[in-house]
Amino acid sequence: MITLENIKKVFRTKEVETHALSGISLTVDKGEFVSIMGPSGCGKSTLLNIIGTLDTPTEGKVVINNSEVSAMTDKQLAIFRNLTLGFIFQSFHLIPALNVLDNVELPLLYRKGVSAKENRRRAEESLEKVGLSHRMKHFPTQLSGGQCQRVAIARALVGAPSILLADEPTGNLDSKMGDEIITLLTEINSAGTTIVMVTHDSRMAEHTNRTIHLIDGQIL
Ligand SMILES: Nc1ncnc2c1ncn2[C@@H]1O[C@H](COP(=O)(O)OP(=O)(O)OP(=O)(O)O)[C@@H](O)[C@H]1O
Ligand SMILES: [Mg+2]
Predict the structure, then answer these.
(1) pLDDT of res. 74
(2) Would the pTM count as exceeding 0.70?
(3) Which of 147, 150, 166, 183 has its CA 20 to 30 A from that of 94?
(4) CATH code (residue 108)
């Protein structure tokens, strides 16, 4: 489902060159729940962003669902991302001016050929899955951190992506809320979504099928 071949990423500024990833090869099978762990600055987010086509490698090949992503134009990539991938982040990235339902519906507005009514239905269904049907008309500032992350998960899942990418999804939450999020992700994985999750927390990683340890841009 996801194949990386000898991925290298160098960030160049005027003064310094940072070798964030130094030859990563990796396969994630359909239905897996994989965690990525390692010290701060070892390249975890860079790796996840490259898998998510949010960033491009300096060298190497990325194949997702049999498509080589480096061969795609920006426009093709945007469509591919919208249809195939869901993202969640440590800081939720909800839009403060939109209520919960509108936040969740947002990714669907970039798709064509589906009625407004159907989009709304899908957004409501997605919120039901994360247990937040009763908060649809609330705004992000009126929710707890755990609830915000659940809204972000509903938004990531609304388009039925085959892969969910999560960068420290429990990083801003206390342990109880973190546990709730991990339980939810485990359920989502059991229902068929492949998940790749970056985490600092070995307790969270224990819930996954496999842990990849990164050090200095390399797999240990
Ligand atoms: N846009 C950028 N420009 C220059 N250097 C960058 C850029 N993004 C990341 N880096 C560098 O690449 C390395 C890897 O960064 P990355 O964000 O992937 O680490 P990380 O493992 O996610 O760390 P953390 O656990 O703190 O989130 C770091 O040394 C970082 O400073
Ligand atoms: Mg990071």
Answers:
(1) 92
(2) yes
(3) 183
(4) 3.40.50.300
